């Protein structure tokens, strides 16, 4: 049984079809189909059933997928232990936030690729919370306050936030003085989130309301600059606007508790070497710079 056949099957299972699996692996569709056929012949069972929407795992395929993924992971770990120090090979697929990644993370990813010329690095920039396992990502970078999850998270640095608005908005509507005052203002939000503030050592939670919502931090910056309301944003995302005066801090007597920058990976006993290296590079960049 060939390890490439196993890897190809795992990719096909996670991607949901031959075409996306070929795209992930960087090979032709015919190679994916040939590897799958060879694996099914070796096992004597059908693993994947063709459908009008792509491919679906058979019952045997669904059972075999997890075992195949574990075998591939164990082989990767075994290979890492005998590689020369600093020699990282293979592929690393990262999900990074669209509103923060290109400006603050892309340079770290590029530096990693430069240091490790045998590593194939692919980044997907999106503010959507991707499913690491089903979408085939090795890790994700996320900002904020993490929800309960089966994923394994490593904090790599603090993220400090500010409550901001444009001078025009403050001139027209005034500035909130306390968290309760926020209920009388338009909030610029990603969804139905709550906002937290500190009053000394006491945490205060507010559920703001607003008519403008976006799943992207850069869009919320633009809305705040346009005078549409008050935004709760990471300082790193609004440094330029704060420096120019396009946005100004409000309600500074009630600071926002620090959030975090996290590397998340699927559950497992041992993280891939590339994920460990990326995590340390992010710690060097963000934790020491804070």
From TrEMBL:
Checking Pfam families in the record gives: HTH_1 (PF00126), LysR_substrate (PF03466)
> What Gene Ontology molecular function terms does this protein carry?
DNA-binding transcription factor activity; sequence-specific DNA binding
Q: Which GO terms describe its biological process?
A: DNA-templated transcription
Keywords from UniProt, A to Z, are:
DNA-binding, Transcription, Transcription regulation
Domain named HTH lysR-type: which ranges? 1-58
Which family is annotated?
Answer: Belongs to the LysR transcriptional regulatory family.
State what protein this is by name.
LysR family transcriptional regulator
Which organism does this sequence originate in?
A: Methylobacterium nonmethylotrophicum
